[in-house]
Design a protein that fits this description.
Strand order of the largest sheet: 2-3-1-4
CATH class of the largest domain: Alpha Beta
CATH superfamily of the largest domain: Lrp/AsnC effector binding domain/regulation of amino acid metabolism (RAM) domain
Helix content: 25-40%
CATH architecture of the largest domain: 2-Layer Sandwich
Low-confidence stretches: none
Mean pLDDT: 94
Number of domains: 2
CATH topology of the largest domain: Alpha-Beta Plaits
Length: about 150
């Protein structure tokens, strides 16, 4: 991993908040001229530190008003159970994050749905119908206060 200095970290912070910023504006914000700033961004990309740029989608604007975290415990561990679970959930846009975790559950999913009725249907008809799933537990997100840095 390359050594990053304070300017590299400032570049990453700015890009994490605004990936569409122009190189001129980025350079101005981090205190460099455009050419050295562009060179640093290219180096960060080449090193794999910057993996890409993406749009942040406002789920509520799409009519998805309920966000939940669902913890999932698998009935079958090992390749078969894991592959069956991951293959089944990959087909559903409602799932925006899938995290393999330690502890008494195996995965935590972030799910966005229209309303509580849609949530109940999704959990019952999709998640709990996957043979590899032993148990689910749902936490409704009441408010998201901040966007953490992506570093």
């Amino acid at each position: 991993m390359p050594q990053l200095d304070s300017i590299d970290h400032r570049i990453l912070d700015v890009l994490a908040r605004d990936g569409r910023i122009s190189m001129l504006d980025l350079a101005d914000r981090v205190g460099l001229s455009s050419t050295p700033c562009g060179r640093r961004v290219k180096q960060l990309e080449a090193a794999g530190i910057i993996r890409g740029y993406a749009a942040q989608i406002d789920q509520v604007a799409l009519g998805l008003n309920v966000s939940v975290l669902v913890s999932v415990r698998l009935a079958r561990h090992g390749t078969d159970g894991t592959e069956q679970f991951l293959s089944a959930i990959a087909k559903h846009r409602e799932i925006t994050e899938c995290l393999l975790v330690t502890g008494n559950v195996d995965y935590v999913l972030r799910i966005w749905v229209r309303d509580i009725d849609a949530l109940g249907t999704f959990i019952r008809d999709v998640l709990q119908s996957i043979p590899a799933v032993a148990e689910t537990s749902t936490m409704v997100i009441l408010k998201q206060d901040m966007q953490p840095s992506r570093r």
